[in-house]
Amino acid sequence: MKYMFKFCNLPDDKSTIKIVNEAANRLYYKLEGIDLETLDISDYNKRYFGSLLDNLQTNLQKYAYILVWSITKMDIPLNKFVFLDYGGGSGMLSLLAKECNIGTVIYNDIYDVSARDAESIGKSIGNRADYYIPGDVGEVINFLKEKSINCNAIANYDVIEHIYDLEEFLRKISLISDSNLRVFFSSGANPYNPLIKRKLVKNHHKCELLDREPFIGIKERDPLKSYLGIRKEIIKSLNPDISDEKVEYLSAATRGMIEYDIKKVVNEYLTSGTITLKQKYPKYPSNTCDPYTGNWSEHLMDIYQLRNILQNENFQANIWCGYYGDSNTLLKCLTGRFLNLLIKNLGRYGLVFSPFFTLCGNMSLLSHD
């Protein structure tokens, strides 16, 4: 199976594995021949989607793994299955889902530019999703209710580490369906892998402290100014006469907060001298987010706390280790396969070597009773 991770845990469902593997193979040749420069898409997605195409087999292995586990053994024919690609970015997971002939494929992303670009890419190769929904989980829930659509599975990669209020998001997940629902959220922000953690902490400090220079293909939604600098501007805008000392204190106290929470903290402090709203995820103090959008800089999370939240929402939930795809070089390929064997046999301790983790869960109709 060329498009499945080697030596990983896969479902005991050879039929679904074969369907997804063959679909990934067909999609590979469709995408291999695509010319992004001729498409009417943003420079951002020409750059970002282009980077996915540079390592196409590896990325298709990753999305095939996610899709196989999302749709396996759901007792629903694929032509009647409803799959939600939440936070789909460039839409590669949606493209694969359509290539599998899943009945209804729904793409969503909070960034309207990505939603528009993903639709253009889908049209160009004949893999357009059935619906494209720009917005956050609230817009998705409202859209599905208006259309009387119940999702059977919701999945993504590298999304949950960017959601500002992830606990609220997880508590709303059950609202996207009145039937059995599977969630499969994979994230490269694995706090148990020391190499990944060190890399992310370095990036946190960069986003927090350094301004950026504009470049072709930048995501226009992201600010150029440092997050610390933005918070200081917001604080000063609320009280131009505030002392520099208080600005320094409040800008540190509001690290990892969106603008409306920053304003709550500042107003409370200036009124009472106290701060009751605390930073999220204090276990990882380097975490920081865009104060305007709440988009986290790939924040490190207490992933077992996330599992517990899903369990409290009547999901059977767990944390799984992720695996390595085949690389373009033989040495890296062999190393990845060796690590996959190690990860598979170590159970939860395999997270120390895993390139990503997955928060997965199942909610049945009985959970609504």
Short key terms for the protein model shown above:
2 domains; 7 strands; 13 helices; Rossmann fold
Map the helices and strands:
Layout: H1 14-32, H2 43-54, H3 56-71, E1 82-85, H4 92-99, E2 104-109, H5 112-124, E3 131-134, H6 137-147, E4 153-157, H7 166-172, E5 181-187, H8 194-209, H9 227-238, H10 244-253, H11 259-272, H12 303-312, E6 316-321, H13 330-346, E7 357-363
Parallel strand pairs: 1-2, 1-4, 2-3, 4-5
Antiparallel strand pairs: 5-7, 6-7
Helix pairs in contact: 1-3, 1-4, 3-4, 9-10, 9-11
**Percentage of helical residues?**
40-55%
Distance separating the two termini = 41 Å
Mean pLDDT across all residues, rounded?
95
In total, how many beta strands?
7
Quick one: biggest sheet?
7 strands, mixed
* Total discrete domains: 2
Shape: globular
CATH topology type of the largest domain:
Rossmann fold
CATH superfamily of the largest domain: Vaccinia Virus protein VP39
Under CATH at level 1, the class of the largest domain stands as Alpha Beta
- Name the beta content range: 5-15%
Overall radius of gyration:
21 Å
Which series of helices and strands comes N to C? Answer: HHHEHEHEHEHEHHHHHEHE
Discrete helix count: 13
Structural class comes to alpha/beta
Q: In the CATH classification, which architecture of the largest domain applies?
A: 3-Layer(aba) Sandwich
With strands numbered from the N-terminus, the spatial order across the biggest sheet is: 3-2-1-4-5-7-6
**Uncertain runs:** none
